Amino acid sequence: MVKWNFINFVIDLYCPKDLYLELAMKNNIKVYRAMHDLTQESLAEKVGVTRQTIHAIEKGKYDPSLELAFKLARLFDVCIEDIFLYEDREARNSERKG
């Protein structure tokens, strides 16, 4: 979480708000866990993290490292993009208003 805050700080410092999009990451981990009949605990053991980490990622409270994202993709035999999806918050907010 600290890394994300630092990245936002650097972007805010060097880039005007209108030059970049605010992104939110969504994921399909819970879907892939169900497809592979895995609990949060068993998935965590397979990729070397805690159950709480898997829970936080599923709830969108924590963005995984690139290494963890690759481990999850390899485990489920899919591309990272099949598990993790970026959403443009500004576009989403304007769609809701319109």
What does this protein structure show overall?
With 98 residues, this protein is mainly alpha-helical. It has one domain (21-97): 434 Repressor (Amino-terminal Domain), CATH 1.10.260.40. The protein is built from 7 helices and 2 strands; from the N terminus they run H-E-H-H-H-H-H-E-H. The protein has a two-stranded antiparallel ribbon with strand order 1-2. Helix 3 (40-47) packs across helix 4 (51-58). The longest helix has 13 residues, at 2-14. The mean pLDDT is 80.
Structural class: mainly alpha
What Rg is obtained from the alpha carbons, in whole angstroms?
A: 16 Å
The low-pLDDT segments are none
Q: What fold name stands as the CATH topology? A: 434 Repressor (Amino-terminal Domain)
User: What do the pLDDT scores average to?
Assistant: 80
Question: Mind describing the biggest β-sheet?
Answer: 2 strands, antiparallel
Distance between the termini: 32 Å
